[in-house]
Amino acid sequence: MLVLTRKIGETIIINDNIRVQVVAIEGTKVRLGIVAPPEVRVDRQEVHERKRRELGLPAPAPTPTES
Q1: Would you say 19 and 35 are in contact if contact means Cβ atoms under 8 Å apart?
Q2: CA gyration radius for the chain?
Q3: Contact 32, 20 (CB under 8 A)
Q4: Is the confidence at residue 58, as pLDDT, over 90?
Q5: pLDDT the model gives residue 67
Q6: What's the average model confidence in pLDDT over 35-63?
């Protein structure tokens, strides 16, 4: 896992075509703005997991940092 420190207004770039910008920080919450091509689905984890369950797909294997 890559861990970065960013300030409000700063951006990270993923694969030249995905931009993640820190929009706001309020207490323990960070608001992110994400710009990605239409073919790249961007969901919160709980929404992603619900969609997989609804489609009857198995849960993905945990990443090394999750085990």
Answers
A1: yes
A2: 15
A3: yes
A4: no
A5: 54
A6: 89
What's the per-residue H, E or C state across the chain? CCCCCCCCCCEEEECCCEEEEEEEEECCEEEEEEECCCCCCCCCHHHHHHHHHHCCCCCCCCCCCCC
Tokens of 1: 């896992």
- Of the chain, the end-to-end C-alpha distance in Å amounts to 13
Task: Confirm if 36 and 21 have CB atoms less than 8 A apart.
Answer: no
**Using CA atoms, how far apart are residues 23 and 1, in angstroms rounded to an integer?**
22
User: Mind listing the pLDDT tens digit for each residue in 1-46?
Assistant: 899 999 999 999 999 999 999 999 999 999 999 999 999 999 999 9
Supply the pTM of this predicted model: 0.76
- What six digits make up the tokens of 65? 């940092």
Extract the tokens encoding 18: 């995905």
